[in-house]
Design a protein that fits this description.
The protein is mostly helical. It has one domain (about 15-220). About 75% of the residues lie in helices and about 0% in strands. It is built from 10 helices and no strands. The protein has helices spanning about 15-45, 45-50, 55-60, 70-80, 85-105, 110-130, 135-140, 145-170, 170-185, 185-220. The radius of gyration is 19 Å and the shape is globular. The N and C termini lie far apart (about 40 Å).
Length: about 230
């Protein structure tokens, strides 16, 4: 049994949190750029689109336009790339990281606390079914073994891709109709999408910068006062 939210390791350096945050911020930006360009890329460059953004919506739209090797290969890598980062935040910062997540997501804080309780009883099934960023953080905080986490996380990710692939096959005709409509109205959709996701990116980056400061205070990581702010504000 895995015990919840303890944290089992020690950060290797005083600014480890910042080093983990930088690739997470980059992934946020890349994902939002993919979202903004989706009306253009979904028909012309579907593989590039899932390399940038692997949301369920995108995966369903492109699955029938990609061969199995491309779909599973790129889809798996893109879905997994951030998971070790959240696992390490949980592993190294334990309770402090959990408290920070709960404060930052007040609307879902109650759900997160329920997940904590469930995690103590069914950690591996939860990681398999829902390997999202919060679950990966819980896995690290609970001290789940690295090998067990990766095996379960990869298996769950592959199952997710398989189910989306089957769903795409079952609804191939409606998906093709939607892609045709996107192609026809590509320009106005692209303009609207770029504006929307540009605003969302700015908001998320500002929130990420503030949130990282809060988490550093929570875990007690000090930084020099003259240290430059990260490129997230």
């Amino acid at each position: 049994m895995v015990s919840p939210t303890r944290g089992r390791g020690h950060p290797p350096g005083p600014h480890t949190l910042r080093y983990l945050a930088i690739p997470i911020v980059i992934l946020i930006v890349v994902s939002n750029v993919g979202n903004a360009l989706a009306p253009e890329l979904v028909n012309s460059h579907p593989l590039q689109l899932i390399a940038m953004n692997s949301s369920n919506r995108v995966l369903i739209l492109v699955t029938n336009r990609l061969d199995a090797l491309s779909y599973y290969g790129v889809g798996t890598l893109r879905l997994l790339v951030a998971d070790p980062l959240f696992f390490l935040i949980g592993y190294w910062y334990g309770d402090a990281a959990i408290r920070w997540i709960e404060r930052r997501t007040k609307s879902t804080g109650e759900t997160l606390r329920q997940w904590e309780g469930w995690f103590a009883k069914a950690a591996y099934p939860i990681v398999f079914v829902a390997p999202n960023q919060y679950v990966c953080l819980f896995a690290g905080a609970a001290g789940m073994s690295v090998g067990g986490f990766f095996a379960t996380n990869i298996a769950g990710t592959l199952m997710r891709l398989y189910l989306i692939r089957r769903l795409g096959e079952a609804f191939e005709s409606p998906i093709d109709d939607l892609l045709s409509a996107i192609r026809e109205y590509r320009i106005p959709l692209l303009i609207a999408s770029v504006v929307l996701f540009s605003l969302m990116t700015v908001k998320e980056l500002r929130s990420s910068g503030q949130g990282m400061d809060e988490l550093e205070e929570e875990v007690g990581e000090d930084r020099p006062t003259d240290e430059l702010e990260p490129p997230v504000s």
